[in-house]
Amino acid sequence: MQILTFLGFTIVVAIISYLATRKTEETSSDGYFLGGRSLTAGVIAGSLLLTNLSTEQIVGLNGSSYQSGLSVMVWETLAAIAMVVTAMFLLPRYLKGGLTTVPGFLAKRFDVTTKTLTSVLFLSGYVVVLLPVILYSGSLAISGMFNIPELLGVTHTQSIWICVWGIGIIGSVYAVFGGLKAVAVSDSINAIGLLAGGILIPIFGLMMIGDGSVLDGLSIITSENPEKFKSMGTAIDPVPFYTIFTGMMLVQLFYWGTNQQIIQRALGAKNLEEGQKGLLLGSFIKILGPIIVVLPGIIAFHIFEGNLENPDSAYPMLVNKVLPDAFVGFFAAVLFGAILSSFNSVLNSSVTLFGIDIYKEHINKEATEKTVVKYGKMFGIVLAIAAMFIAPFIANAGSLFAYLQEINGIYSIPILTIIVVGYLTKRVPAIAAKIGLVTGCLLYIISQFFMQPYFIDTALATAAEKGITDVAQLALIKAQAYPHFLDVMAILFVLNIVIMLIIGKLKPREEDFVQEYTQQVDIKPWKHVKKAGILICALVIMVYIYFA
């Protein structure tokens, strides 16, 4: 019955996506890569949320909240402010320039080499880190939910391989052969299911704690675990509170404002007004995100009395314990949709980056739009297969969510730096952008993969010599031995900007950069964008004050 429900919901989503997109012209770049620039606010908001919300978020963040409580909600709540900034500042400039890819702006502002370097950085991060993490974490969830090893009589490792390739093949069909509109429509349907199913988990969990009453359950869990309901993280938490004012906001701005897999949804808007409304609607829902990706982890801590060996198993175990059997198939289908959404969104963005920024620019300058789409799809297939081979081998990467965030820093901050400098200055030259990209990547790699382990190992060795064995004390020593990776990002962001401005002073462009209006879409802003943006930012601040 569970499998029938799962298949039924998945097939219905596929049919609706096909019917909604069959008339979209997908032999052109705009048709395939941007859904014909026809996306409306609801579709944009749904696709943004589903692209972001997948198993590495649901499983990883709930695992973090199991350990550290409410303070990890910053990954959700601060995203709302970043989306407001994107709607008000970045999106008008993107749509004015008629951009299909974010690196496309860099070609106009700096030069083609800068654009190509940025696209290669994006693609490298996608195939080596993001796609494999999405596939692996999704496979863990699906394998555990349906107990694939027992069902098929295979080992745990074999079940992960089976799930990785199953998800990968289905996701590739959506992304490579359906284009952005198929991805966005299926995302929107799954968004409704995920919001409904995701909210059911904490409701059933609280009902179990409160003997059938959600309010009683909430009262019990807050009174018995007050330390878990503090919004401000300490030095040993995954996200100390002060990092909100250092690197956290930069990470959020990169992700929601410049990351191709995310911003591509807004670039496909039919006009600026719809794009802004979509981003702001998504940002409002983001404030409610902790109900799905943080609260269940705290509920699991209470129910399992903090005895789980692996925090990342908190969410799957909670689902198995509290969800009635009748809902398991539906929730698995919705979760499968979320996994597919993130996978095919990244894949579609990769196809876009390769087709427009690499194939058309460097391999075949005379290629027709139909040819660009064709070779973009071929590249997408190769990329998907590579990710499917890599995914099962990241089983020993530790905390998936922490791994993903830290590794992304290699390319996120350098790219954000050159985009910010590109928009806020007029005379900084192309050589400054290229130096900014290279130094940003190299310094972050040296910091996090060479200097950080050295300083932490030295501090722990010194502690061992002094006979310090207390776990809490050792955690504090480790946290204080080297700056938090978010602090490192902030330091490198400022350093990169200073380097680029100095180069701009010593060797400026010959003339000011002026952005042209391509008239691809209407760029008249939504009349309520400022009021809505201020309201959303105020709500975020109120949430922090309430839980402080």
What secondary-structure arrangement, pairings included, does this model have?
Elements: H1 2-21, H2 29-33, H3 41-52, H4 55-68, H5 74-96, H6 102-109, H7 112-146, H8 148-152, H9 156-209, H10 214-224, H11 248-258, H12 260-267, H13 272-287, H14 290-293, H15 295-303, H16 314-322, H17 325-363, H18 369-390, H19 400-424, H20 430-465, H21 471-481, H22 485-506, H23 529-547
Helix pairs in contact: 1-9, 1-17, 3-9, 3-12, 3-13, 3-17, 4-15, 5-11, 5-13, 5-23, 6-7, 7-9, 7-17, 7-18, 7-19, 7-20, 9-10, 9-15, 9-16, 9-17, 9-18, 11-19, 12-17, 13-23, 15-16, 17-18, 19-20, 19-22, 20-21, 20-22
Could you walk me through the main structural features you see in this protein, from its secondary elements to its overall organization?
This protein is mainly alpha-helical. It has a single domain (2-547), classed as Sodium/glucose cotransporter, CATH 1.20.1730.10. 76% of the residues lie in helices and 0% in strands. The chain contains 23 helices and no strands. The protein is globular, with a radius of gyration of 23 Å. Mean pLDDT is 81; it is low at 25-35.
Summarize this structure briefly:
The protein is mainly alpha-helical and 548 residues long. The protein is built from 23 helices and no strands.
